[in-house]
Amino acid sequence: MATATADPIPPHKTFDTILVLDFGSQYSHLITRRLRELNVYCEMLPCTQKLADLEWTPKGVILSGGPYSVYWDDAPHVDPAVFDLNVPILGICYGLQEIAWNFGKNVLAGEKREYGHAYLKVERHGDGETGGHVDKLFQGLEDDAEVWMSHGDKLSHLPDDFVTIATTKNAPWAGIAHTSKPYYGIQFHPEVTHTPKGKEVLKNFAVNICQAKTNWTMSKFVDQEIARIRALVGEKGQVIGAVSGGVDSTVAAKLMQEAIGDRFHAVLVDNGVLRLNEAQQVKETLTAGLGINLTVIDASERFLGRLKGVADDPEKKRKIIGNTFIEIFQETALKIAEEAKGSDKAGEIEWLLQGTLYPDVIESISFKGPSATIKTHHNVGGLLEGMHLKLIEPLRELFKDEVRELGTNLGIPEELVWRHPFPGPGIAIRVLGEVTPEQVRIAREADYIFIEEIKAAGLYRKISQAFAALLPVKAVGVMGDKRVHEQVIALRAVETSDFMTADWYPFDGAFLKQVSRRIVNEVNGVCRVVYDITSKPPGTIEME
Ligand code: GLN
């Protein structure tokens, strides 16, 4: 079973880092997003983090919002050691209440819940008794600011040694600050876009108050990540990893290639259900284009053989493809490991590359409640039983758009950097019903035309994901004066920012007409084209 190994140069040791302690708010990850956008590096940990276990010192700490009430018996509380770190602290919503609770247990349920827009009135104190530091959080903001609130609890009174720095009609302590220490609390959410000047507030905190350097840039990240990989893998260590042609695995692979050259072995498994010409294209881009040491395994027959006869259970298709993939990757890894042995330039394969992104990490560490156990991060490490591979995850600190920026920095072609997501089971779950080579051909050709037209219309980047699916029914048509009884292609195209909810894309009629005309004319076996106008929910993005 693979295990994570101590990281020789974690980013929080290189970059000034703001620590976000998550109390379970649905917006916690947005705090980290906003800080990153300000080029300030930050990491999120659950609110239960014991600070003595932290091997680094943050430049400042943000306590997030959360669904609990601080006065509940089982409410989560921050390690009181946070107040001994001698760094600035900002509490947001529950975080504000948590600070107040620490300074005098003065939080109770309000009579009115406050949910939505509110007008913040900033109160400034000048240099007087507080030396002016209390004004720093709202520096540069107008005295009236639109903010977004979502809370039911409120302070019963101002804690000792604090001053009010902002009020709203409903919240007399919408902003508070300690008179001598850099502790701030705000009842509103600066991380959501409904608080237009929220980012300024976070900037005031991170940059002006914590004095965090704004040096989290992709080129800095590349240099430091390459150094980190080299230190981790050592002079001779070798790494293996699967690539799919998607942006994450390609960027991760390119980073490995830059760091350790051919001691990184990329494996592309052609499962027979990739897009039209895809295996060939990915091979060319990764090898000739990016210089990656790539092995392509054509396993189409094994995959398609096992999919034969599986008609009405999409889960079964997914399982067959997943298991066959693991089997083939394992065989290939063992073969490569055997060949790699005994060379004086390189040692054994010890590492498995994974393209884990920060949202997966956040998902696994975010605070799920006082009684809920925190889910450990899933990995495929276990799949290489017996090889004892350790995991290497060079993208684990990055968000998707940061990965794209990194890809561009590394010279990866734009077409690949902006590629729509493609599911692991590929075309197999876009052929509804039984997957046969003939059905795959039809779905592939139709998909190719649809995507080609989307690109030609300049819509590819606007649309988040698009594909053609082959329906398992036949319809009657008339082609060349002859009655035909052939299949139906369903087109799907959605816009979404997070893939959790999605809406179908409103193409204009002329565009749809052109796509439909081409598919019926050019793809043998299709006599009708329909457009899927279901949003998610209730639909899913893929059809199986
Ligand atoms: N549960 C707390 C309240 O209702 C905090 C809410 C929040 O952090 N958004 O006031």
Write a concise keyword list for the protein shown above.
single chain; 544 residues; alpha/beta; Rossmann fold; GMP Synthetase, Chain A, domain 3; 3 domains; 5-stranded parallel sheet; 14 helices; 18 strands; binds glutamine; GMP_synth_C
Architecture overview:
The chain is α/β, with parallel strands linked by helices and 544 residues long. It folds into three domains: 15-209, Rossmann fold, CATH 3.40.50.880; 218-418, 3-Layer(aba) Sandwich (Rossmann fold), CATH 3.40.50; 437-531, GMP Synthetase, Chain A, domain 3 (2-Layer Sandwich). 31% of the residues lie in helices and 23% in strands. It contains 14 helices and 18 strands. The chain has helices at 11-14, 28-37, 94-102, 198-209, 218-233, 247-260, 278-289, 300-307, 314-340, 358-365, 400-409, 414-417, 437-456, 509-522; strands at residues 17-22, 41-46, 60-63, 89-92, 107-122, 144-155, 162-167, 175-178, 183-186, 238-242, 264-270, 294-298, 349-353, 390-392, 465-479, 482-495, 503-504, 526-531. The chain has a nine-stranded mixed beta sheet, sandwiched between helices. A five-stranded parallel beta sheet has the order 12-11-10-13-14, with helices on both faces. Strands 15, 16, 17 and 18 form a four-stranded mixed beta sheet that branches. Helix 5 (218-233) packs across helix 6, helix 5 packs across helix 11 and helix 13 (437-456) packs antiparallel against helix 14. The longest helix is centred in the middle third of the chain and has 27 residues, at 314-340. It starts with 10 loop residues before the first helix and ends in a 13-residue tail after the last strand. The chain binds glutamine.
